[in-house]
Each structure stands twice: as structure tokens, then as C-alpha cells.
Amino acid sequence: MNRRQLLTGGAAAALAPRLKAAPAKPAGKALMKVGTQHSITDETLAVLASFGVRHVCGTLP
């Protein structure tokens, strides 16, 4: 190891305790929607509604 590496490594080690990482912000809630695109019948709509699917793109029943 040469002197330059020794000195830069020592300086970095001396400053390391002073440099602290900023506390991480908690992640926000994910806003997601469940949807579907396929043939729609009254029975299919009832099943999808029971699973919480409220966004449907299809033909009218």
C-alpha cells in the first residue's frame, strides 16, 4: 500500500462517523385498482364483484 492510499483511506475513516445517512421516509400507500377486460355476463359480474373487482371494461350485459 502506498502513502497516498493510506492517507486517503485514513481521512475517509476519520470522517465516516460524522457522515450519517438521512433517515428513510416511510413509503406511502400504493393506490392500485383491480380491473378486467373480457366477456361480461350477469353471472361473471356477480363473481367479479364478490372478489372486489369494480372496474370492468367490456360490452354491456
Describe this structure in words.
With 61 residues, the chain is mainly alpha-helical. It is 36% helix and 7% strand. The chain has a domain at 29-61. The protein contains two helices and two strands. It has a two-stranded parallel sheet. The model has no long low-confidence stretch (mean pLDDT 74).
Strand order of the largest sheet: 1-2
Low-confidence stretches: none
Topology order in helix (H) and strand (E) letters: HEHE
Overall 3D shape: rod-shaped
What's the tally of helices?
2
The total count of strands amounts to: 2
Biggest sheet descriptor? 2 strands, parallel
Using the CA coordinates, give the radius of gyration: 29 Å
Helix content: 25-40%
What structural class do helix, strand and pairing data support?
mainly alpha
- Share of residues in strands: 5-15%
Provide mean pLDDT, rounded. Answer: 74
Could you tell me how far the N terminus lies from the C terminus, measured between alpha carbons in angstroms?
A: 78 Å
Concise summary:
This protein is mainly alpha-helical. The protein has helices at 3-15, 42-50, and strands spanning 35-36, 55-56. It is built from two helices and two strands, in the order αβαβ.
Layout of secondary structure:
Blueprint (H helix, E strand, L loop, with lengths): L2 H13 L19 E2 L5 H9 L4 E2 L5
Parallel strand pairs: 1-2
